[in-house]
Specification:
alpha/beta; Arc Repressor Mutant, subunit A; Trna Endonuclease, Chain: A, domain 1; 3 domains; 5-stranded mixed beta sheet; 17 helices; 9 strands; 46% helix; 14% strand; globular
Length: 365
């Protein structure tokens, strides 16, 4: 028999003895039966404290746990079935099912954003706020930190200066947000997770978009100025906003290609690389063949491949990996590309190329 209890932590809040009662019956009776008990909750903090913390009466009795994550882009793409539209929508709404399953994905993007985010009565207008208030007791400082990250301050020092808070306090708040999966700490590929070069990024695209374009303009939105907000603040910056999300989407797509042996190298590690003022969108390594690939992703049309490859060649010398005889390859991705002189070390993809390969991997007709 399978019994599933949703939002179990709220039951515990109503009756704190519930976990002790469940522990007693599980230890004396239920644990010896074929009962399959599933308890779930939407608040990560409450689930951890009431069910998984060592002080919980149920600690050590679970046979497994699942942290339900958002859809990956490759899971979301078949729903829209058009790559350019899917990238744009995923960059704005992310992979949480309730956020990304737009009723009419082929509407004009302005109409989609205005209807779902820039109206006071829209479902998503306050949902980010509701989620954070459910998880956080004092959201004011957290809002300031998330707003700071959303506009590009990604180190503790920059966040502290922007918010007017002490670094120690910022570190504490960042740790809480990371524990709740709201943000993540990212380090340059090949540098290790303990690198001091780490930056903080918002995990969910809708949270990023909301703090960047909705939260600062609530007054205008609540005065019914959704079209003004879109044309004045969102439209001029939308391509620039999508750019970093396009890099993350390409990373997800490359994992798919790697799995199906459609990538030029069989990489064992891949990620963003940076050092001081220099940055490369993606660096992938294949230790078996001593091959390293450098990739730039441009959410632009008519991308100049040769110019980008020249820049990548210069930056490549700064990436310390492999032997002195390592093979270097270069990859350029854009919405569309300017014709270039072909070279066996250069790989290029435009949106049509990527879409064909995705459909091949996913067996889409």
């Amino acid at each position: 028999m399978v019994i599933a209890i949703d939002e179990f932590p709220y039951l515990v809040q109503e009756d704190s003895s519930l976990t002790s009662l469940l522990q007693y019956y599980w230890d004396t009776t239920l644990g010896k039966t074929h009962l399959y008990l599933i308890v779930s909750g939407s608040s990560i903090g409450l689930v951890k404290s009431q069910l998984m913390h060592y002080k919980s009466p149920l600690y050590g009795r679970r046979t497994g746990q699942i942290l339900l994550k958002p859809f990956r882009f490759i899971d979301y793409y078949p729903y829209v079935n058009d790559l350019r539209t899917a990238i744009t929508l995923y960059a704005i709404f992310g992979g949480t099912p309730a956020y990304c399953l737009i009723d009419e994905p082929f509407q004009d993007i302005e109409e989609i954003v205005c209807q779902n985010l820039l109206r006071e009565d829209a479902f998503l207008y306050r949902d980010v706020e509701f989620v954070l208030r459910m998880e956080l007791k004092e959201p004011r400082y957290y809002y300031s930190i998330l707003l700071s990250i959303a506009i590009g301050n990604t180190t503790i020092g920059l966040i502290a200066n922007d918010c007017g808070l002490e670094k120690g306090l910022v570190s504490k708040y960042l740790a809480t947000l990371a524990d709740l999966q709201v943000i993540r700490r990212e380090t340059p590929v090949l540098s290790g997770s303990m690198s001091r070069k780490g930056v903080y990024l918002i995990n969910d695209n809708l949270f990023s978009f909301w703090f960047r374009f909705v939260y600062p303009y609530r007054k205008e939105i609540e005065m019914g100025e959704s079209e003004f907000v879109y044309h004045e603040y969102i439209a001029p910056q939308l391509s620039h906003y999508i750019g970093p999300r396009f890099e993350e989407i390409i990373l997800d797509i490359f994992y798919l290609f790697n799995k199906h042996s459609l990538f030029p190298i069989r990489f064992s590690d891949i990620g963003r690389w940076w050092h001081k003022e220099q940055e490369i969108d993606l660096v992938a390594i294949d230790p078996k063949s001593d091959t390293i690939l450098f990739c730039e992703c441009k959410w632009q049309d008519n991308v100049q491949v040769e110019k980008i490859v020249q820049s990548l060649r210069k930056k490549a010398a700064l990436v310390k990996w492999g032997t002195s005889e390592r093979k270097e390859m270069y990859c350029v991705i854009g919405r569309s590309l300017v014709p270039y002189q072909e070279d066996n070390t250069i790989i290029t993809y435009d949106l049509d190329d990527i879409e064909q390969l995705i459909r091949s991997c996913l067996n889409l007709v």
